[in-house]
Amino acid sequence: MAAIGFKNTGDGDADSYMWFKTGDNGNEYFKWDHTTSGGQTAEWMSLKSDNLRVKGHQVYHEGYKPTAAIIGAYTKSEINNRFIPSNANAKTSGYILSKAANLYDDPNSRHLGRSGFLRPNGIDNLGSLAIHVAHPSTEGPEHARGISFNYGSSGDKFGLSTYAFDKDGKFQGQKKILTEDDKDSLGNVPVGVPLPWPQDKPPSGYLICNGGRFDKSRYPQLALAYPSGVLPDLRGEFIRGLDAGRNVDSGRKVLTSQFDCIQDHAHLSGVEGTFGFSVPQDGSHRNVPGGFKSNGGNTSTGPTNSNWNNIRIGTETRPRNIAFLYIVRAA
């Protein structure tokens, strides 16, 4: 059973409509066909119990929402894998390329409470370019660290440093990071070279030159300098250059020791004395004018007076000096 009608009670009826009723097996539907000028019929619209279709395509509505695949969109999980949401934690297996924040030209980008690539161009002593790492629990530079670079076009094109901020966000300065171009750095001193150290204990990675043995398998580079596995004992010693054919200190070999000594020499001195005598007026005598000369005699010595000419007396002969602890790099 099917019926169709139109409800309209008059011109003032605000609820006029066409109705279509069915009461059969439920497969009835409303269909709008269009016949072209060539006599062909095309379905323009159909209304079934499940949905409305226009030219064969279902109409989307609140009860029938399109899927991401149908409209060519990403699903939520696909979006999370492809994009980093703002103000949210995210992990990605892809890469992100971005420009450095231009701190020099854009004051709004000067936010040291965020990590990133910066172009300070020398402001605030942060270098020309920088990688800044902010502490996640702060909104400012407190506890932050960073590495700053010179421009690749500068004279010191490979120069780089590390900088730090304290717990109050106060800049603590920069420390230069050494590269292979820093030939004068301590790390480039050949292993085995004795180094004067201004403290009584060696720094980490160094041994005292105290005549002790070392593990040659543990320190193979040091073993090349000292094949015996024994360091020279430089405690209280002066280092002297090897003669090497100059004939000033001939006969010496590397690492041989030498006792102290005083060069052969002589001290010249003179002794002068005066005395008086008298000739008796009475009796037989002979007064022979002249003088007295003594070419010999006995001498005696007394205790050494160290105050003569302010001479410093000690148990050794030495020049003026300053004491350092001699160490070698253990490698």
TL;DR?
By secondary structure, the chain is mainly β. Helices cover 5% and strands 20% of the residues. Among the domains are: 2-68, no CATH class; 107-176, no CATH class; 189-248 and 320-331, Phage tail collar domain (heat- and protease-stable fragment of the bacteriophage t4 short fibre, domain 3, Alpha-Beta Complex), CATH 3.90.1340.10.
Task: Please give a structural write-up.
This is E14 prophage putative tail fiber protein (Modular protein). The protein has helices spanning about 70, 75-80, 220-225, and strands spanning about 1-5, 15-20, 30-35, 40-45, 50-55, 55-60, 115-120, 130-135, 145-150, 160-165, 170-175, 195, 205-210, 325-330. It has about 325 residues and is mostly beta strands. Among the domains are: about 1-70, no CATH class; about 105-175, no CATH class; about 190-250 and about 320-330, Alpha-Beta Complex (heat- and protease-stable fragment of the bacteriophage t4 short fibre, domain 3). The protein has a 5-stranded antiparallel β-sheet, with no helix packed on it. The chain has a 4-stranded antiparallel β-sheet with strand order 3-4-5-6, with no helix packed on it. The two termini are about 100 Å apart. The mean pLDDT is about 85.
Write the layout of secondary structure elements.
Blueprint: E1 2-7, E2 17-22, E3 30-35, E4 41-47, E5 52-54, E6 57-58, H1 68-71, H2 76-82, E7 116-118, E8 129-133, E9 145-149, E10 160-165, E11 171-176, E12 195-197, E13 206-208, H3 220-225, E14 325-329
Antiparallel strand pairs: 1-2, 3-4, 4-5, 5-6, 7-8, 8-9, 9-10, 10-11, 12-14, 13-14
